[in-house]
Amino acid sequence: MKKTHGSLFSGIGAPELASEWMGWENLFHCEINDFCRSFLEKRFKSTSYADITTTDFNIWRGRVDILTGGFPCQDASKAKQTGGRGQLGLEGHRTGLWWHMYRAIDEIRPRWVVAENVANITRVNDGRDFAKILHSLSGLGYNAEWKIMYASDAGAPQRRARCYLVAYSNGIRLPAGKPFFSNVCQEIIKERRMFAGTSLSVGVSWAGQPSVCSVGYGFSNRSSELYGKSRLKEEVFHAYGNSMCPQLMHEIFKRIEYLDN
């Protein structure tokens, strides 16, 4: 039977795309950004929600196999460490939206949950916030595993470290001695390619990334002089910057499919 997928904090639909690659059915997405939501509605045609804080998900109870959500990272990101401020974690208005994802999980009760955030989410407030996330999932009857993964693990020419947390209901039993992530991204071919004049090892880490003489969103001063600034262009790059890596989601989804059959 075809698996079903629902998405929270959907962005431009990286999980939806990976779900489509799997042949699964995308049931709904939830995204407050107007630009991203307009794209989702045109591209995926699933039920559309705007604001997770006001949405009742009870109608999806028992109908969703996999629920995903890249909840906001602003209060957990190292980018906001300024003089010791900015690390509010789950107490912040943005990263604290985890508790609405938790509510949605409780209302929907999917078999699997995949949550994504910056790698630093495991260290905010000396790890206490991440412990709260794990404890909240455990209280709903979910086991959880997590791993810091990189876009380069799926072949992208950048590191882009993110924490991927996979939770599964107590009724799901993994093979003994085989953690969930043991076979994720093991089939990536190690190759080398040229990117922006720099030789990169795909599938493994490298010392640095090609430098970018940039202004906002990576556009050079010369580019802005020649082509001007475009709000649409900035919207697109902002959306890409917030997006999960669909190839990594696809690897996680393949593991779920293998274990859940």
From TrEMBL:
It holds the Pfam family DNA_methylase. PROSITE patterns: SAM_MT_C5. GO terms for biological process: DNA restriction-modification system; methylation; negative regulation of gene expression via chromosomal CpG island methylation. InterPro entries: C5-Methyltransferase (IPR050390), C5_MeTfrase (IPR001525), SAM-dependent_MTases_sf (IPR029063). The keyword Coiled coil does not apply. Keywords: Methyltransferase, Restriction system, S-adenosyl-L-methionine, Transferase. It comes from the Bacteria. It catalyses: a 2'-deoxycytidine in DNA + S-adenosyl-L-methionine = a 5-methyl-2'-deoxycytidine in DNA + S-adenosyl-L-homocysteine + H(+). Its EC number is 2.1.1.37. Gene3D superfamilies: Vaccinia Virus protein VP39. One of its GO terms (molecular function) is DNA binding. It is an enzyme of class 2 (transferase). The active site is at 73. The keyword Methyltransferase applies. Belongs to the class I-like SAM-binding methyltransferase superfamily. C5-methyltransferase family. This is DNA (cytosine-5-)-methyltransferase. It comes from Bacteroides finegoldii CL09T03C10. The lineage of its organism: Bacteria, Pseudomonadati, Bacteroidota, Bacteroidia, Bacteroidales.
